[in-house]
Amino acid sequence: MNKNKNVIYNFYDKEKKDQPRGIMVTIHGLTFRFQKDRVKSASELIPKYSDTLLDYGCNDGDFLKKNVKKFNRGIAVDISNNALKKAKENLSGSNIEFINGNTDEENLPILNETVDTVVTTDVIEHVFDPVNLIREFNRILKMNGTLIIATPNIAWLPHRISLLFGKRPRTSWSEGWDGGHISYFTFSDLKEVLKNLGFKVIKRTTGGSFWFLRTWWPSLLGANIVIKAKKIRAVNPR
After folding, report:
1. CATH code for position 153
2. 137 with 118: CB under 8 angstroms?
3. In the structure, how many helices (H) and strands (E) does the chain have?
4. How far apart are CA 118 and CA 116, in angstroms?
5. Residue 32's pLDDT is what?
6. Which of 22, 179, 222, 232 has its CA 20 to 30 A from that of 209?
7. How many domains are contained in the chain?
8. Is residue 13 a part of any domain in this protein?
9. pLDDT in tens, 160-187
């Protein structure tokens, strides 16, 4: 178990670089000004003010830094010690608590119902047990607290076409097997899991190139899923 744990932690401590994407690089460059990534989409869904905001999978802390005026107290959680080190440097002087955590192995060291808003972008697809992750978010969130999740959409039209021709859809261009992604979601899948774990979806959107057109049919046209949900009931913790 310890050996496996070290492999996982080392994987996320390692600096990763995106792999070349051929024509996708060209398309990305040409449509840059018409793009909205899922981090920006998630930022727009944060309540105007939260007493406590938790960023699960904080990476270098850039998300919290960009939204620092929207909370009184921040909590930055990441599996990578290297990421937390960068986050501490990036968020120097801010009222932030830093936690090295992984819900696949243990619960977060946070008291029940003490957090107003939880944001997690590009993380749930890396988690072995996403159900327990959302259950843990339910535990720490106050009643009517906000949960914002962003993750790749496996049902995006190009992914469906790839499967039709017998090819594996790729949801990440980082190093490793699909950049370490092990869990995959559609809008309806994630909505159902949230419903079963005490949340009500109040907003769903997406990002990407020409994102304003993709919102017309996000489950098919959205390369990523961005969901805002509200805790409406408590569920039993693990």
Report:
1. 3.40.50.150
2. yes
3. 10, 9
4. 7
5. 47
6. 179
7. 1
8. no
9. 999 999 999 988 888 778 889 999 999 9
